[in-house]
Design a protein that fits this description.
Layout: E1 3-9, E2 18-23, E3 26-30, E4 37-43, H1 72-79, E5 94-103, E6 106-113, H2 119-124, E7 128-136, H3 137-151, H4 159-165, H5 172-187, E8 199-200, E9 206-207, H6 209-212, E10 222-224, E11 232-241, E12 244-249, E13 253-258, E14 266-268, E15 277-282, E16 288-292
Parallel strand pairs: 10-13
Antiparallel strand pairs: 1-2, 1-14, 2-3, 4-11, 4-14, 5-6, 5-7, 7-8, 7-9, 10-15, 11-12, 12-13, 15-16
């Protein structure tokens, strides 16, 4: 029996990406290192990962291109307990509002539980971020809505857009300046819509480029669109951001693997010189191919 990947995390206490693995009742973690070879082969069918720590009661088969890896029933259960979905309004924890930068002109506003630290920002692949304020959940949610409307920034940015700009990021000074400019516009609205219970936090632009392995620049070309039975992924890890692993492959050059596509599959060793096919999509939007790598 192969190992089933449970996804990639960026835990606050470790500050590096961690892949979770499960086989029966056995649970493990691994921390892939930049420069190391990474390879695995998918086998069988992809099954629902369940929700909120519960296994899927029917072990449903799920599509290979789903990043959620959940059947409709488990997806509804997971969403029913989600702060992001506005289904929880009485959470007593302290939350924080943040500004996150992913590329030129690509900034969003969001909230996260204070106890999680900056893990949420790393999980989204935020290259630079700054805290903006802290307070009760609904105060943070209200501030998020005010800023989205007044500043014209979204609360979500598709991962496809984030991947497309990683190969040509501007320097650290320019990245920080864009976050600082938006922070200044945000605090200028403090007297016109910010809840009184929100405590403003000082500007501190935290840059994740070195942590992600992006500070020297990375090439972006292809992205894995799904895994298939017998399909293998083999490459040298050069960067990681959010759920994405950037791999340098022998036959297709730079390839991005969204680790959310790994969940629900049983994965085993790829074997030396593996040449199994997995579908690849052009990050630039130019097409799709069956990749050999």
């Amino acid at each position: 029996m192969g190992w089933q990947c449970t996804g990639m995390r960026w835990p606050e206490e470790r500050g590096v990406p961690v892949l979770g693995w499960r086989r029966g009742g056995e649970v493990r973690e691994s921390a892939p290192a930049y420069g190391a070879e990474l390879g695995f082969r998918a086998g069988g069918e992809r099954h629902c990962v369940g929700a909120r720590g519960n296994v899927c009661p029917v072990g449903a088969v799920v599509p290979g291109r789903s990043t959620g890896a959940r059947c409709p029933e488990c997806a509804r259960l997971d969403r029913a307990h989600s702060v992001a979905a506005d289904t929880i309004v009485d959470d007593p924890r302290t939350y924080r509002v943040y500004l996150a930068w992913f590329g030129p002109g690509m900034v969003k506003v969001g909230i996260t539980a204070e106890e999680r630290g900056a893990a949420r920002l790393r999980e989204q692949g935020a290259v630079v971020f700054s805290w903006l304020g802290r307070g009760p959940l609904m105060a943070c949610r209200r501030t998020e809505e005010v800023l989205r409307s007044a500043l014209g920034v979204p609360d979500r940015i598709p991962y496809a857009r984030k991947r497309a700009v990683r190969g040509a990021l501007p320097g650290a000074a320019e990245r920080g300046a864009e976050v600082a400019g938006l922070y200044g516009r945000a605090v200028a609205l403090e007297g016109a819509g910010w809840p009184e219970t929100l405590e403003r936090l000082p500007l501190e632009a935290v840059d994740h480029a070195a942590l992600f392995g992006l500070d020297g620049g990375v090439e972006v070309a292809w992205a894995v669109t799904e895994l298939v039975d017998g399909g293998a992924v083999v490459g040298r890890l050069v960067a990681a951001a959010g759920p994405d692993l950037h791999l340098e492959t022998a036959t297709d050059g730079p390839v991005v693997l969204d680790t959310r596509l790994m969940t629900g599959w049983e994965l085993g060793a790829a074997g030396a010189g593996s040449g199994a096919r997995v579908p690849l999509g052009d990050i630039g939007g130019g097409g799709v191919q069956g990749g050999l790598f």
